[in-house]
């Protein structure tokens, strides 16, 4: 068997769906990463091995609605730390803080429970994909408003042509992504 990097192995299991949800869009579908037990384990291990390092170990993992829940919850479990969901507006039952951000067409709002993180906690903020960076930036602002320190943002896929990863890095947020779809 030929040696293949983890990044290429994962990339080979991401399905591209042309013209979805709109003409001209190349949708990067991560569901094949989750369907195969071996591929899913390689994906989770890629994150877990990074964040087991004491210098990068978070106190809590925050996942962005909804695919960030899938990855973030499993990573938190493997690191033996808590998991915090950042949800779309109207989905959390307790007292929340909210952050509205701009999308390509319109805006969206995400929420966090007011007791989800403690001041000073180191938080890993995770999602499936970085496109324009709006969701991750809003999640970061929510966590920081509660006194937490977002030590890094992480995602499976980066779509650098949409400018989100550059915007997040320029804001001072370190990013870790596994697959880059630049120019594809």
UniProtKB/TrEMBL annotation:
The protein's predominant localisation is cytoplasm
User: Which branch of life, at top level?
Assistant: Bacteria
Where does it live in the cell?
A: Cytoplasm
Per its UniProt record, what Pfam families does this chain match? Answer: Pribosyltran
Would I find Transferase among this entry's keywords? yes
Show the GO MF annotations.
adenine binding; adenine phosphoribosyltransferase activity; AMP binding
Catalyzed chemical reaction(s): AMP + diphosphate = 5-phospho-alpha-D-ribose 1-diphosphate + adenine
Q: Which Gene3D superfamilies match?
A: 3.40.50.2020
Answer yes or no on keyword Transferase.
yes
Q: Which UniProt keywords apply?
A: Cytoplasm, Glycosyltransferase, Purine salvage, Transferase
Its BP terms in the Gene Ontology are: adenine salvage; AMP salvage; purine ribonucleoside salvage
Q: Which pathway, metabolic or otherwise, does it act in?
A: Purine metabolism; AMP biosynthesis via salvage pathway; AMP from adenine: step 1/1
The UniProt entry, under CDD domains, shows: PRTases_typeI
Oligomeric state and interaction partners are given as: Homodimer.
NCBIfam families (UniProt xref): apt, PRK02304.1-3, PRK02304.1-5
Q: Which family does it belong to?
A: Belongs to the purine/pyrimidine phosphoribosyltransferase family.
- What HAMAP family does this protein map onto? Aden_phosphoribosyltr (MF_00004)
Q: What does this protein do?
A: Catalyzes a salvage reaction resulting in the formation of AMP, that is energically less costly than de novo synthesis.
Q: What is this protein called?
A: Adenine phosphoribosyltransferase
According to its UniProt entry, this protein's organism is Rhodoferax lacus
Question: What lineage is on file?
Answer: Bacteria, Pseudomonadati, Pseudomonadota, Betaproteobacteria, Burkholderiales
**Its encoding gene is what?**
apt
């Amino acid at each position: 068997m030929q040696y293949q990097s983890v990044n290429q192995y994962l990339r080979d299991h991401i399905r591209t769906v042309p013209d979805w949800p709109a003409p001209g869009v190349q949708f990067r579908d991560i569901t094949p990463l989750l369907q195969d037990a071996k591929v899913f384990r390689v994906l989770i291990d890629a994150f877990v091995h990074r964040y087991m390092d004491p210098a990068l170990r978070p106190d809590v993992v925050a996942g962005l609605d909804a695919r960030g829940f899938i990855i973030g919850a499993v990573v938190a479990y493997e690191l033996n730390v808590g998991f915090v969901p950042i949800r779309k507006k109207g989905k959390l039952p307790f007292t929340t803080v909210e952050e509205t951000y701009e999308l390509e067409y319109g805006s969206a709002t995400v929420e966090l429970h007011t007791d989800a993180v403690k001041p000073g906690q180191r938080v890993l903020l995770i999602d499936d994909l970085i496109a324009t960076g709006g969701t991750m930036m809003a999640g970061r602002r929510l966590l920081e408003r509660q006194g937490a320190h977002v030590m890094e943002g992480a995602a499976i896929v980066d779509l650098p042509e949409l400018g989100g990863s550059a915007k997040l890095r320029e804001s001072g947020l370190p990013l870790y992504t596994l697959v880059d779809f630049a120019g594809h």
